[in-house]
Amino acid sequence: MKTFLIYRDRDFDLQRKLPVNEKALTQDLELNTLFNAMALGDKFLFEVARKVVLSSMSDLDAILYRQSILKDCLKNSLIVKDMYNIAVESIEIEKKHYLSFFSFKYPSSILHRSIGLLQLFVGILKKLRGIADSHADKFESEGFIRFFAMLQKELTDEYFLHIQEHLKELKFREGVLISGELGKGNKGLHYLLHKVQDKKQSWIERLFNRKTPDYTVYIHERDEAGARALGELKDRGINTVANALAQSADHVLDFFTMLRTELAFYVGCLNLQETLVQKGEPIAFPLPVAANARKSSFKGLYDVCLSLTIEGKVVGNDVNADDKDLVMITGANQGGKSIFLRAIGLSQLMMQCGMFAPAEAFCANVCNGLFTHYKREEDTSMKSGKLDEELRRMSDIIDNISENSMILFNESFAATNEREGSEIARQIIYALLEKHIKVFFVTHLYELAHGLYEQRLESATFLRAERQADGSRTFKLTEGEPLQTSFGKDLYNRIFSNAG
Asked: Where does the DNA mismatch repair proteins mutS family domain lie (predicted)?
């Protein structure tokens, strides 16, 4: 049985490798804040959220497939959490059952464990089938429709009855019937387990039934060696059956493990959604478009990680950067530029893993890779300067970035003088645009920003953080020409006026 609740055609691999830049993305976008909100202290939920979000997809159909499943989860959250808890219960039962035995090297102990485990699994599978029977009609997504249809087709009443009959028979309450042959040196060969004859025969059937000759050997109750030899004969006879039953138990356990893993992502999304709804923050399912298109339009876009760390609501932004390859962001210090940039990166990742977006509306083209180039603290070992470190990271990005990717720059190349930093940044931007890579760039380098503005590039748009006449910040971004000042004096006045 397969779940197919993350991908349409394959299982989700929790051991898959993450992108080479996952550490930079996690640091620059503060992704651990997002993962913690999805996990609510559960380490397994955290790991699944981390792997799914960072393994973003660029296939539109795959994104929409997962979106539709998540929409079902939001409408039926209690049912989804119930199924998740059932999967967790099955795995916990297996762990306890495993620890109740000290050794499984003997076929008889393997058989005994497998029978007990499968009996418990049958009860849990019946719970899942019951959910399918009672609630399948509440789900509309392709993924859940197929999942519930699979449960109802595979887990029929006849199937459960058949399983119970086999498990009862494999307990061998009527004894074990084994045949074998003698080889060289009277060594036993070709042991074969047989079905025990049905003793529910009439006396006439028993009287006229042809019997094969048999011999009876009695072992003294104190004959330990004889009892051990008899046990070894029994183990050889049931070895094949024990292994087959153990494999069956493992297959059922694998199903529950995959169900838990794939539902864990949606449970994490439900946890996040509940937190945001309680705060009154909007969420919307984004509209993804092809990678070779250029779409970046949204309403009320906010930084979800900032929202998760403060009590109040976060100011959202409305921007239309459709048909643009370059978005330059300038303006007042502490005006919300870096927060906006992080919101862009977070919403892009969330869209491409099939999640909702932190916005009232969101539409963007998918990208083949998301990269960040943020300023870092100076190298304390003094092995290199900040500019060398920035250029080295930029070189690593170039080695891995491809056409139709996206890169976010935050105050990059400001470690040198403005003219040199602007020239480095300008050349890098032009090279990226030539390779059809989407660029968002937050900068205080006026020479860079204004120089690009004067080029009147059709594929570029310029956003500026608002500043009120009294120096206060609205944290809103609007289209506008870069200004020569970032109004650092506002911060100076505010800090020292408060200190006084």
From this structure: 324-500
How far is it, in rounded angstroms, from Cα 113 to Cα 90? 15
Distance between CA atoms of residues 310 and 8, nearest Å: 37
Q: What global pTM score does this model have?
A: 0.86
List Cα–Cα distances, 230 to 4, 42, 106, in angstroms: 47, 49, 13
CA distance 450 to 168: 81
> What's the CA gap between 338 and 320, in Å, rounded?
18
> Percentage of the chain surpassing pLDDT 90?
65
Strand 406-410 relative to strand 438-442: parallel, antiparallel, unpaired?
parallel
Q: Provide the phi-psi class of 402: left if phi over 0, else alpha when psi is between -120 and 50, else beta.
A: beta
Q: How many CA atoms lie within 13 A of 127 on its CB side?
A: 16
Q: At what angle do helices 418-434 and 446-454 cross, to 10 degrees?
A: 50
d(CA 18, CA 400): 13
Q: Round to whole Å and give the CA distance between 496 and 269.
A: 43
Exposure letters 81-97 (e unless 16+ CB within 10 A, then b): bebbebbbbbeebbeeb
pLDDT tier, 12 (very low <50, low <70, confident <90, very high otherwise): very high
In 3-state terms the chain splits into helix, strand, coil percentages (rounded to 5) of 55, 15, 35
Residues 6+ apart with CB under 8 A from 216: none
Q: Is 131 exposed, middle or buried (0-12, 13-18, 19+ CB in 10 A)?
A: middle
How far separated are the first and last CA of the chain, in Å rounded?
70
- Residue whose C-alpha is closest to residue 412's, from 434, 438, 397, 391: 391
- Report the chain's C-alpha Rg in angstroms: 33
Residue with tokens 């100011």: 315
State how far the Cα of 33 lies from the Cα of 177, in Å rounded to an integer.
61
DSSP per position, 22-46: HHHHHHHTTHHHHHHHHHTT-HHHH
C-alpha span between 299 and 286 (Å, rounded): 11
CA atoms within 13 A on the CB side of 396: 14
Burial of 42 (0-12, 13-18, 19+ CB in 10 A): middle
Best-predicted range by mean pLDDT (5-14, 106-115, 331-340): 5-14
- From the centroid of its chain, how far is CA 280? 26
